[in-house]
Amino acid sequence: xxxxxxxxxxxxxxxxxxxxxxxxxxxxxxxxxxxxxxxxxxxxxxxxxxxxxxxxxxxxxxxxxxxxxxxxxxxxxxxxxxxxxxxxxxxxxxxxxxxxxxxxxxxxxxxxxxxxxxxxxxxxxxxxxxxxxxxxxxxxxxxxxxxxxxxxxxxxxxxxxxxxxxxxxxxxxxxxxxxxxxxxxxxxxxxxxxxxxxxxxxxxxxxxxxxxxxxxxxxxxxxxxxxxxxxxxxxxxxxxxxxxxxxxxxxxxxxxxxxxxxxxxxxxxxxxxxxxxxxxxxxxxxxxxxxxxxxxxxxxxxxxxxxxxxxxxxxxxxxxxxxxxxxxxxxxxxxxxxxxxxxxxxxxxxxxxxxxxxxxxxxxxxxxxxxxxxxxxxxxxxxxxxxxxxxxxxxxxxxx
Length: 400
Fold this sequence. Notes:
Elements: H1 27-36, E1 41-42, E2 45-46, H2 53-63, E3 97-103, E4 111-112, E5 115-116, H3 117-130, E6 137-143, H4 154-159, E7 161-168, H5 172-180, H6 190-200, E8 210-216, H7 226-235, E9 241-247, H8 251-263, E10 265-271, H9 274-341, H10 345-385
Parallel strand pairs: 3-6, 3-8, 8-9, 9-10
Antiparallel strand pairs: 1-2, 4-5, 6-7
Helix pairs in contact: 2-10, 3-5, 3-9, 6-7, 7-8, 9-10
């Protein structure tokens, strides 16, 4: 919480001893003088015309104590959200449309977790799509299912990226039917598949509205650059988030596919079985919404703190200015009447300089207070910023 700066006005010393005695000849008119100049009177005494600048100043402050410290209240700040953790599995999607890109290269004919990887991936994708609300728009891209996995079939296979389903709602049945007809056979044109996925999405969208889910058991083998393709897709008008699920992926291939996800604004997850592919798809889906909501809350908290600091600083500046303007007016009235009563110009001008000195200290206090608010607000917002999860940040570990 912000606090007022450790600075105070010049100490106001109480008057010592009694006022100089007023000659008896003026005793009868003292009450009348006090009535005519109430600001000069205190209890049953009035200032003597021989009063010093310090005595006039003290008398002024006794009647008009400085209220400037009330201009510097504590600053109320919000803490923002706690550091982000994974959303629950199976939560509804935060995106509007998605393309699932499934690897059908020759290696997907192998086994993982006691099942053929291609069939396991098909079942996982089918279950995932079936778990989504019908309004969720889904498209399907398959790659590596053409040609063969030897050199003679490489060119055909690397060019064999196919959009089996355009993006649209109620896709569960069509996804199952399309994937059941795919046989794993060829190479892995991952970069071309990412490009095709982007072309199936809307050309313009907001962050988080469109997503690509890549399910693959290996890195690029057709000479393309999937990292560059993911970066271009994410930075384009589609603003698509590219997530990667490494299905039974060799350890040496993980770094490259992790980079694909990171530059694509998404995350990479490992999956060792069809069930894990299904869970990974659900987690990716939930993570997008969780991260988006969290970041919105964090930015809102930062904005609230910055706005609060600005308002409090502005109010403090106005408060100090109002007090000083009021005191300038009072001092002018005092000087006018002191001159009329015959006080020396040295005394009342010295009194004026003392009040002006107070005002200088007020401004110093104001600047120290404003600087303290800035530092306090900045510190709070830096802590909030650390909780923001930027695109490309890997998901936190879940411990399972």
